[in-house]
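chain below, 378 aa
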Amino acid sequence: MSDELKSTKVNSWNEWDSLKHVIVGRADGTMVQAPEIAVQREWPEQGYTEGKYGPYPKEMIDKANEQMDNFASMLEKRGIRVDRPTPIDFSQKVQTPDWEQDSMFGCMPPRDLLLTIGNEILEATMSYRSRWFEYLCFRPLLEKYFKEDPNFHWEAAPKPRLSEGTYKEDFWKKWNALSEEEKWEESIKSEWIPSEVEPLFDAADVVRFGKDLFVQKSMVTNQTGIDWLQRHYPDHRVHTVRYKELLPWHMDTTIVPLRPGLVMFNPGRPALEPQREFFEKNDWEILEAPKSVLTKKRPMTFCSIWLNINLLVLDPKTVCVEASETPVIELLDQNGFEVIPVPFYEVSPFGGGLHCGTADVYREGSFEDYFPKQVQGF
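prediction:
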């Protein structure tokens, strides 16, 4: 590794500048979460009936870790520095003065927690009690960066109380009583389980385009959290975005920046704002994402079937894609990218794909305005 890469520098403004330093997660000790207000897991075919929780099978953990280790090795061979989190005992009961939770979750998807904007890494609030303490897995790395980079700003958003008032009363009971048609009608309102009592957001609900940040109102991100982000980043334009989607959760399979002037949209999640007009007015080309080769989710996977477009862009000419997803690989190849096929679907049960499983530390590049022409109402 070069002397340049041995020294730590925190800086990343978007999703496509040349990647030089990244965090890759781990699957060790991941739990099927104990039930809580915000989320309940249920996979009866794997023995996890309603209310049951416990560790993911060791065989699944080993396969996921093997793929992540191979991915990290590939990145290092390309001259990219890779750091890894320190797992803790996720099976332990945790509590605050407001609540007790019978288990934690894991630390595979660092993108959910860590938001890098310029020379700052921000720890997101997180919105599940089982993930409240997840930041501890990444503190050894953040402490190291703080000592090594004098320009690094280390920030943490206000830790939410996550008391009962943080969530809408009887949300799941009311939701489950709706017909499919009624659920789609409700989705237009984007009134999900978080109340507006306190700021809530996961970092993976933020997509970075330099000066413009797209933030999705979702099952883990409320409008108060989006407002907090706008105040925290006064030099940015923070756009609240919503999509026609049932139970939206994170944005990196919805809108995928590839390079300046080129973005991929998920055709299964039409935007409820004039998003297409916003891009077209600024001369961006829009690619429509192809469907996944998968026809159903893999066992014990809570993520979307659209993980085929959960990509990691290494630079404006190079992108990592799940190795089995030939339609996406061919589309990107046709648009001038070197596509690196990366086997990663054994990781999906642990919280996502290639983008979810990483968090930027350093990308070359600077703060730029890619949308000089704004659109009213967006």
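The radius of gyration is 20 Å. Residues 6-363 form a domain with the L-arginine/glycine Amidinotransferase; Chain A fold (CATH 3.75.10.10).
thats it, cya
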